[in-house]
Amino acid sequence: MGVINSNKLVSRTEINCGEELRVTIAFTATPDISSNPTDIVLVLDRSGSMAGSPLANLKLGANKFIDIIDEATDSSQDGQIGSGSRIGIVSFASTATEDTQLITSVADLKSAVDALTADGTTNHADAFTKAIDLFDPSSSNAKVMVMFTDGNTTAGGPPAPVADQAKAQGITIFVIGLIGSDGIDVNALNEWASDPDSAHVAVTPDDADLEELFEDLAENISKPGATNIKISEVVNSDFEIINIENPLVGSVNQISTDELEWTIDSLGVNGSESAVLEFDIRDISNTPGEKYVNDSIVYTDNENNSVTFPTPTVLVDCGIIVHPEDCPTPTDFTVSGCSSSITYDLGDTCLVGGRMVQVNFTLTSVCPQRQVAVAVNLTELDSFGDEHQRGFKAFLLPAHTESECRDIEVRCVRFVLPEELNVSCNNGMCEERNLRARVYANYVDNDFVCCDEKNPE
What we know:
CATH class of the domain at 33-222: Alpha Beta
Radius of gyration: 32 Å
Distance between the termini: 95 Å
Oligomer: single chain
Strand order of the largest sheet: 6-5-4-7-8-9
CATH superfamily of the domain at 33-222: von Willebrand factor, type A domain
CATH topology of the domain at 33-222: Rossmann fold
Shape: elongated
Structural class: alpha/beta
Strand content: 35-45%
Largest sheet: 6 strands, mixed
CATH architecture of the domain at 33-222: 3-Layer(aba) Sandwich
Helix content: 10-25%
C-alpha cells in the first residue's frame, strides 16, 4: 500500500520571542494492496454543515479514491476493484446509513457517493458502528476505515468507545478532518484514530484540499511499502534546531543549526508500520508574526511514493521592543604593508572609554497612547557593600498604539563602566565586578497641574 499517511505537527501554535516548541514528523507505510487484499470502508460526513462546496469536494475526493484503488488492484481502471480487495460506503448525519456493502463495482460505489445530500446533525458513534458491521470477522483481508468529518459530535453516544472497539478488532482507522463552520475537536480525532495519532490524522481548514488528501491516500496504497527513505527538513531561518530525539525507526543526522536528515532503510514492507521523529526548535529572530515552522521538507524513496507534509505555522509574540539609543557609527579602515605598527586617525568621536555594559529590561503593562519617561541608575558595590556611582541614563519611550496595555522590552541601554582600582580590582587583576541597577519609569502624558497654577492666589 506504500505510504498511506503523512503528517507534521507542532506542540504549540503561539510562543513568545526566544521560546521553544516541539515539531513531530510522522508517516505510515503498508504493503502493496495488489498482493495484500484489503477491505476499505469510507465513512463520509453528510451533516448539514457539509452543504455546498464541502460536499462537492468530498464527492470528488471519494470518487478519485475509488478510481485509484480500481487501477491499483488490477493495473487498469476496468470498473472493478480487483485482487480480492473491496470497498464499502457508510455515510452519516443524525444517523448513519450503509450505502453499500463491501463490493467491487466502481459504478455502484460512485453512485452511492454521488447520491449523498447534506442535512441533519453529526452522529459519529453510529457511523463507527455501521462501518464495523460491514467488515467480515472471518476474512483474512486487511481492514481499513477512512473516517471523514467536518465537525464535532452533536447526536448519539460517545464515539470513542466504538472506535476503540473497531481498533480492537484489527481495523486501522484513519481520520480526515475539515474545520467546518462550528470548528472541530482535533483531540477527539486523535482519540478515534489508530496510533500514532500524528500518522493517522490529517486536518485541513480548506475543503478544496479534500480531493488531494483522498488522492494522496489512494495513490500510496498501490506502493509496496517504502525502502531507502530519506527526509530532508530545513526549518525556517527564524528558528534553530536545539534538540533531536532518537527515532525508534531509522537514524537522524543534524546537518546544521537549521537542517536535519532522517533516513530509514525500509518501512511497511511486511506489514503496516509507522515512523515518528520529534525535535525541538527555538525562535532566534526576535521579530514577531505568524511564521511557517519549516522552510522546506523533501521526501524520497525507491518506490517514488508521493508524500506531502503539512506546513504548520506558529505565532511569535515579541511584545513591544524599543532601542532607545543608536549604536555608534563605525569607521572602516584597512591595514596593509609590512610595518610592525600603524597609526590611523579615526577623526572626531564622542567621549567613551573603559568597559562597556549594556542592560535590558521590560516595562510591564504600559497603556496605549502614553509616553514613558525612563531613567536607569548604575552603581558598583565594593567589598564592604558600599555603592559607587557608575552611570545614569534618562530617555523618553514613545507611545505605542496597541489596543490594550502591553509589556515593552527596552534593549541595549549602554554604559561606559570606569574602573576604580580600590573598588573594581583585586591584586592588580580585574575580576568579578558587582553592579546594581535601578530603573525609574513613569508616564509623561498625565493630568498633573502644579498646585500654584491649579489654585492661584
